[in-house]
Specification:
Helices cover 0% and strands 45% of the residues. By secondary structure, the chain is an all-beta fold.
Length: 260
């Protein structure tokens, strides 16, 4: 738990490097329980997380709600780079209220697997950015897996939130694999200024769910390269949007019977 006093009295220049973090179930009073986060940071300026390893394999059948390896709130100039995430049941990185500055999530290797079971919806994400400004999400390798169980999706890039503000979020040069019923990218731009919320370019998306492979022939994936994608009218597209918005120069490794 890394926390400053307030947005005007922040912790500064903290670096967490070359550590291994294990997220596991713990038996307390004969009940299996889990923590909310491995790293929680709030009111920080210049926090760096680099060359760390995050593992998660809780033995409980469900973590009881969305949990996180890394959660950062009300912070600026953070740099999450060259980390490795191998996670079951939990979200890798969650960002909310990123403050004015220059922040980066770059060169991370992220694998998530949503094996939560039981009642209740528990969606997890590789990178989840709820709100904020001036964040570059670049050069990450992401694999998001789920078992296509209703209410238990895994989304690779989960960008924006209803009623929240997002500005100048750059998403570029990421390699994204979506395996299951979740999305490679789900965007929810804020308000009416859609173009200023997210700029997605030069990303590569790869969908492996067999139920969506309508355009595959002999095991060879078909490349599409289009300037503007729209949400498919049927099925479960790789790229979902809460609002219509441009996706420039992204590349998709197959199509679900329509441009996405």
């Amino acid at each position: 738990n890394i926390k400053g006093i307030s947005p005007t009295s922040m912790s500064n220049g903290i670096t967490i490097k070359n550590n291994t973090f294990e997220y596991e179930s713990v038996l307390i009073n004969s009940l299996l329980t889990v923590s909310d986060n491995l790293i929680y940071a709030e009111y920080n300026n210049g926090l760096t997380l680099t060359k760390n390893v995050f593992n998660s394999s809780p033995t409980s059948s469900t973590v009881g709600g969305e949990k996180y390896a890394v959660m950062i709130q009300s912070s600026k100039n953070f740099n999450i780079n060259r980390n490795e995430f191998s996670l079951e049941k939990i979200t890798a990185i969650s960002i909310s209220q990123a403050l004015a500055g220059s922040s980066k999530i770059a060169n991370n290797k992220i694998g998530i697997n949503n094996t939560n079971s039981g009642v209740g919806n528990i969606h997890i994400s590789a990178i989840k950015l709820l709100s904020g400004q001036n964040v570059d999400i670049v050069y990450n390798n992401i694999y998001a897996l789920d078992a296509s169980v209703p209410g238990k999706q895994a989304t690779a890039l989960n960008l924006g939130s209803q009623g929240q503000s997002t500005t100048n979020i750059i998403v570029k040069n990421n390699l994204v694999v979506s395996d299951g019923s979740g999305y490679a990218v789900w965007t929810k731009p804020s308000g009416e200024n859609i173009a200023s919320s997210f700029a997605l370019s030069n990303n590569m998306y790869y969908k492996t769910d067999a139920t969506l492979r309508k355009d595959l022939k002999n095991g060879s994936f078909i490349f599409y390269s289009v300037n503007n994608y729209r949400r498919c009218g049927t099925g479960n597209p790789m790229v979902g949007t809460g609002n219509s918005m441009p996706y420039q120069s992204n590349r998709l490794l197959y199509g679900d019977g329509c441009w996405i």
